[in-house]
Design brief:
The complex is a heterodimer of chains A (about 150) and B (about 775).
Chain A: E1 6-14, E2 19-24, H1 30-45, E3 54-57, E4 60-67, E5 70-77, H2 82-100, H3 105-110, H4 112-122, E6 123-124, E7 127-128, H5 133-149
Antiparallel strand pairs in A: 1-2, 1-5, 3-4, 4-5, 6-7
Helix pairs in contact in A: 4-5
Chain B: H1 8-17, H2 21-41, H3 47-59, H4 68-76, H5 80-93, H6 104-114, H7 117-130, H8 133-146, H9 152-168, H10 173-176, H11 179-183, H12 189-205, H13 207-214, H14 217-229, H15 244-258, H16 262-278, H17 284-299, H18 304-318, H19 323-336, H20 341-345, H21 348-353, H22 360-373, H23 379-392, H24 395-412, H25 416-430, H26 437-448, H27 453-466, H28 471-489, H29 503-515, H30 521-537, H31 543-551, H32 558-572, H33 575-581, H34 599-603, H35 614-622, H36 643-648, E1 665-670, E2 673-680, E3 688-697, E4 703-711, E5 717-720, E6 736-743, E7 753-760, E8 763-770
Antiparallel strand pairs in B: 1-2, 2-3, 3-6, 4-7, 5-6, 7-8
Helix pairs in contact in B: 1-2, 2-3, 3-5, 4-5, 5-7, 6-7, 6-8, 7-9, 8-9, 9-12, 12-13, 12-15, 14-15, 14-16, 15-16, 15-17, 16-17, 16-18, 17-18, 17-19, 18-19, 19-22, 22-24, 23-24, 23-25, 24-25, 25-27, 26-28, 27-28, 28-29, 28-30, 29-30, 30-31, 30-32, 31-32, 32-33
The chains are: A alpha+beta (about 150), B alpha+beta (about 775).
Chain lengths: ~150, ~775
């Protein structure tokens, strides 16, 4: 039994089934992605509020949590620790919250690239890069600054 | 008029403002046209904005492939704003299936070697997200260099990129293994975390790496120890737990290193005990760490006491108010139920309570675990709990629950009667959800429990009378009534309520099943055959049965029609064979749990090993095994039932044209007892002769203990089937029939010697004689 916790993908979507972010950590065709997203959204949206955050879907485990109007959904495989994935999701939400100041869905909609940038500072290949909130936020800040200045090469 | 291109925010606004899908599509199509134009000859400074819009539109599900080249251009641009969006675009629009993705390899290479840190970060991120095997091979050395860079920001990313590279190209382990020793001395949590992930990946793929890194167990233990005890800075803690992400990752690595390795397991034993007892689990972070600890304890060679501690922690998790924690507990206990059965058993009451969970994910787990916990000492109690659950469980769990109960009953049934009761109850509650072989299993079970035939048939009759909708139940009940109908009428059975049943009631019930639109074709087959069997079990006249059978001779269902026609023929032309053909079945042999018994074949009273095709049954006939050729033959107990003859009867519609019928031969007569032989030479089997010996009694006194034995010359093979009975009542209409199979491969003249013993008129009689005047057609 593999001990690797590899995240397959992370999705953010609204209660109405509108996709707000999709990060794929395993090569999948566009067509296949669309199919999986549609299917999984249906499954998750059908869950009742009091149900637990874990479900089995296809050959994967799905960890999801709803924050206000957004569902945060991670598909993981292998022998895994669902509880730490919940922490991972929560950390990402905290980062968004700190960055946008009391984040809401509209922030994610109108600043979707930022949401990606923040995610890419926190996770890489599905693994956690840095466990310090401060460190991650600082890195985003610096990148934002650099964007203002506009220079790319040292 | 050309509408000006929108800014991203405005575009989003407009899309959201669209009232219909069509409107949305219109806005987007218009904008995409602008974007395309802009890509062609627009301001390069604004290109990144155009791509951002395209990426938004892509997320809504619209095609964006024409933006792929733009990603390449933007990545190659010196401006950071361009690169940021360009790399994002690459990660969203390019994947290794597209050829375009290889074109970014060069840009990445340049950015890795010459870019400022944020640029290197972008390049590394993209590489670890969409880097194909080829790209990884090309850029491995660049990443290796970055592992030694002074900036911890870059190093942590380089380490994780290495993880991805190894996943894509395992041979690259050669490059990335050596730096690990150094990296493990890092204090930066991010680098440490990445390194441990990297080491885990290496160990998973190579036993040599595994051996190498086992040396690091003490170091890892130390790192974890520091995290746990000195309570690291709040920067990395969550709810008072020191960097739970890092703790979990270390624990996972320790698990791999300690598996099947005494020394390593021992080295981590104390620490694991410490983490298990000291972690604060008031919040999820602590529970996550504790959970990982439990998983590690269970997977390595830990001390027995530690294992028990781990299982108990899971038991405590089961009582946690947090559903998620209960869920992981159930999942883990399920994994442990084989290896640590007694430890898990201690938590059985709690597990059973979890069956009540309204959340289907949890009740499903609880069901699986409950079924795994059934053993011979708790089977009665557990079956009761599971049956209560079956009554209320959600529909998608019904099949598993029903099957699980039946399986457990099969493995641990304390008595046959309990077993039959349990199956009955399950079939009544959830009949439509049981697996196909439940019917076969139950008939097998009942068949083998002779002392319970009366009990079974009564219970099944009562159940059937109440409800004819549950198909498996109806099938078993029909079969049982057919087989043991005589016991149904026979007055009382001590284990059930007294049941007074008339023959007519039974026939009416079976007819109801036959006619009901709820009955599946297979079920109706069972019912028809059962009716037929009752023609020999019941004493009354068979007019009602004959009527039903003849009606179904024109049934549209082919299977039923064929049966009915054959049964009809049994009544008309082969009445003398009817009793033998419909006699009680011998116990069916179950070759394997997977052997599906064809209900159709059973219904016909055909061979009890239905997995054999008809062809080999024919071979069996040619292959007759004899104890002694030519010696007196006794009926073989497990011989294929006379039902085979039905398949061989040449008078079936559509069967090959029969040979000229051989005239019957009366071979014996004494004081009203008459023995007649009728002959059959099935076409297609020239060496075979089927003899049916029919004994009738027209005298005023019963004939009892009637036994017929036969002998043939040495070159012949003879097999006697079990006779239909041994009693001929006075002036009885019911004859005794017995089938003799004679194989004559040498075509020698047939000679037959018979020996009869019986009681008649108060005297015991023995007669031995040779049959004379055997027609030549019996052997030529």
């Amino acid at each position: 039994m593999s001990s690797i916790l590899q995240m397959r993908f992370m999705l953010l979507f609204s209660r109405q089934g509108k996709l707000r972010l999709q990060k794929w950590y395993l090569a999948t065709s566009d067509k296949e992605r669309k199919k999986m997203v549609r299917e999984l959204m249906q499954v998750v949206l059908a869950r009742k509020p009091k149900m637990c955050s874990f479900l089995e879907w296809r050959d994967l485990k799905v960890v999801y949590k709803r924050y206000a109007s957004l569902y945060f959904c991670c598909a993981i495989e292998g022998q895994d620790n669902e509880l730490i994935t919940l922490e991972l999701i929560h950390r990402y939400v905290e980062l968004l919250d700190k960055y946008f100041g009391s984040v809401c869905e509209l922030d994610i909609i109108f600043n979707f690239e930022k949401a990606y940038f923040i995610l890419d500072e926190f996770l890489m290949g599905g693994d956690v890069q840095d466990t310090s909130k401060k460190s991650v936020l600082k890195a985003i800040e610096q990148a934002d600054l650099l964007q203002e200045v506009g220079v790319g090469r040292g | 008029m050309v509408m000006p291109s929108l800014k991203l925010q405005d575009l989003i606004e407009e899309i959201r403002g669209a009232k219909t899908q069509a409107q949305e599509r219109e806005v987007i199509q218009k904008e995409c046209a602008h974007i395309r134009a802009s890509f062609r000859d627009g301001d390069p400074l604004l290109r990144h904005r155009q791509l951002a819009k395209l990426l938004y539109v892509h997320m809504l599900g619209y095609p964006a492939h024409f933006g792929q080249m733009e990603c390449l251009k933007l990545i190659a641009s010196p401006r950071f704003s361009d690169k940021r969006v360009g790399y994002l675009g690459a990660m969203l629009l390019l994947d290794e299936r597209q050829d375009a993705h290889l074109l970014i390899t060069n840009s990445i290479k340049n950015d890795l070697s010459q870019g400022v840190q944020p640029v290197q970060a972008l390049a590394l991120c993209t590489l670890s997200t969409v880097g194909s095997a080829e790209m990884c091979r090309d850029l491995a050395s660049e990443v290796e260099k970055l592992l030694l860079q002074p900036s911890s920001y870059v190093r942590k990313k380089a380490v994780l990129t290495a993880v991805h590279m190894i996943r894509k190209v395992p041979e690259l382990s050669n490059i990335f293994l050596p730096p690990c020793t150094q990296l493990l001395r890092e204090r930066h949590h991010g680098i440490l975390l990445g390194t441990i992930t990297l080491i885990t990946e290496l160990c998973e793929r190579s036993p040599a790496a595994l051996k190498h890194f086992r040396k690091m167990v003490p170091q890892l233990v130390q790192i974890l120890h520091t995290l746990v005890t000195s309570g690291c800075s709040t920067e990395h803690s969550i709810s008072g737990v020191g960097d739970p992400f890092l703790q979990v990752q270390i624990l996972r690595l320790l698990r791999i290193l300690g598996q099947n390795h005494e020394e390593s397991s021992e080295a981590m034993n104390d620490l694991l005990a410490q983490v298990a007892t000291n972690t604060d689990t008031s919040r999820n972070a602590g529970s996550a760490v504790l959970f990982e600890t439990v998983l590690t304890i269970m997977d390595i060679r830990s001390a027995a006491g530690l294992r028990v501690l781990a299982v108990n922690i899971l038991g405590r998790f089961l009582l946690n108010s947090d559903k998620n924690i209960r869920y992981v507990a159930l999942t883990s206990l399920l994994r442990l139920v084989q290896s640590d059965h007694s430890a898990v058993q201690r938590h059985r009451p709690t597990v059973v309570e979890c069956l009540q969970e309204p959340d289907a994910s949890l009740s499903r787990r609880a069901l699986e675990l409950s079924l795994a916990l059934v053993n011979s000492s708790n089977v009665r109690a557990m079956t009761q709990e599971l049956q209560s659950f079956l009554e209320v469980c959600p529909p998608d769990l019904r099949a598993d629950c029903a099957s699980g109960i039946l399986l457990a009953a099969e493995r641990f049934a304390p008595t046959k009667r309990w077993h039959i009761d349990t199956i009955l109850r399950v079939l009544t509650m959830a009949g439509t959800h049981v697996r196909d072989d439940a019917v076969a299993n139950l008939t097998q079970l009942i068949g083998g429990a002779q002392e319970l035939h009366a009990y079974s048939v009564r219970c099944l009759y009562s159940a059937l009378a109440e409800d004819i909708s549950q198909q498996p139940l109806v099938q078993v009940a029909s079969w049982c009534i057919g087989e043991y109908g005589d016991l149904l009428l026979e007055g009382s059975c001590e284990e059930t309520e007294p049941l007074q049943v008339e023959e007519e009631e039974v026939l009416a019930l079976l007819e109801r099943v036959l006619q009901s639109h709820l009955s599946l074709p297979a079920t109706r087959g069972y019912a028809l055959t059962a009716l037929m069997k009752l023609s020999t079990r019941f004493r009354g006249d068979n007019n009602r049965i004959r009527q039903v059978v003849s009606i179904y001779g024109s049934c549209l269902d082919l299977e039923l029609q064929q049966r009915a026609v054959e049964y009809n023929a049994l009544f008309r032309k082969y009445d003398h064979m009817r009793a033998a053909i419909l006699e009680k079945m011998p116990l069916v042999e179950r070759s394997s749990p997977q052997a599906e018994e064809q209900p159709e074949e059973e219904g016909r009273g055909a061979s009890p090993t239905p997995t054999e095709p008809k062809a080999s049954e024919l071979l069996n006939l040619l292959d007759l095994l004899d104890d002694s050729s030519g010696g007196a033959q006794h009926p073989a107990p497990q011989s294929p039932s006379p039902g085979d003859a039905v398949g061989c009867l040449p008078a079936m519609p559509g069967a090959p044209p029969p040979l000229a019928p051989i005239p019957d031969l009366r071979v014996f007569e004494r004081q009203g007892l008459r023995l007649t032989l009728s002959f059959e030479r099935p076409s297609g089997v020239p060496a075979l002769l089927l003899i049916t010996a029919t004994a009738t009694n027209s005298s005023g006194s019963d004939v009892t203990h009637f036994v017929c034995q036969a002998a043939v010359p040495k070159s012949f093979q003879l097999q006697l089937q079990a006779p239909s009975g041994d009693t001929l009542p006075a002036q009885g209409s019911l004859p005794i029939t017995q089938l003799l199979r004679v194989l004559n491969p040498t075509k020698a003249p047939l000679r037959l010697k018979l020996r009869l013993t019986y009681n008649h008129f108060g005297q015991s009689v023995q007669e031995v004689f040779e049959v004379n005047n055997l027609p030549a057609e019996t052997w030529q």
